[in-house]
Design a protein that fits this description.
186 residues; seven-stranded mixed beta sheet; 20 strands; alpha/beta; five-stranded parallel beta sheet
């Protein structure tokens, strides 16, 4: 691995223009192009492409096209998990999705960060990333955005259109912008 990839995976500032990272994103993009172009009845072909693309995908999990990600290899999906249409997973840091998860259409899991106070670093395209973890049996409603560094505990539900900026405990219904706990779930 190159220095910038190492820095990226450690959550440090890195340059995404690094040739090694660019080549990985292009390779990922080619697989995504093939996946997103498959006919609706080609489920086995889609499954094979996801196996090539992702770090891991469990049994009976599936993703509907149009699917977008940066690298693919830093995404791990458990079994019996479903990602609906137009999911965007920016996997500059690991994204771990548990078993039995349902992710609504147009959801975004975004690990990328840009310097907030160091204007020159932002101007010169330095960035960093923090991992996202989605526990078992979580439901993310349509249009949910999960921000860098967030963990959503098992058996939780996130209301449609929510922007999740901090961790959500297990067995919680949370919603809003910013997302906040509404009530406990059994």
């Amino acid at each position: 691995m190159g220095e910038n990839r190492d820095r990226m995976l450690r959550g440090e500032l890195y340059r995404d223009s690094d040739p090694d990272l660019v080549a990985s994103r292009i390779s990922c993009g080619k697989l995504l192009d093939r996946f997103n172009a498959t006919a609706a009845d080609r489920t086995e072909e889609r499954r094979e492409l996801l196996g090539e693309l992702l770090g891991s995908i469990g049994a009976d999990s599936w993703i509907m096209p149009r699917f977008q990600c940066d690298y693919g290899t830093y995404i791990s999906i458990g079994s019996n998990t479903f990602l609906n249409y137009d999911a965007i997973l920016l996997d500059c840091a690991p994204i771990t999705i548990g078993n039995d998860v349902s992710i609504g259409p147009r959801a975004q899991l975004l690990t990328a960060l840009h310097p907030m106070e160091d204007h020159e670093a932002r101007r010169t395209r330095w960035e960093s990333a923090l991992p996202i973890t989605i526990g078992n049996n979580v439901w993310l409603g349509g249009g949910v955005i999960v921000c860098p560094g967030v963990t959503i505990g098992e058996n939780s539900v996130i209301g449609a259109g929510s922007v999740v900026t901090r961790d959500v405990p297990s067995h919680t219904f949370a919603a809003g912008n910013p997302c906040r706990a509404i009530r406990a779930l059994p």
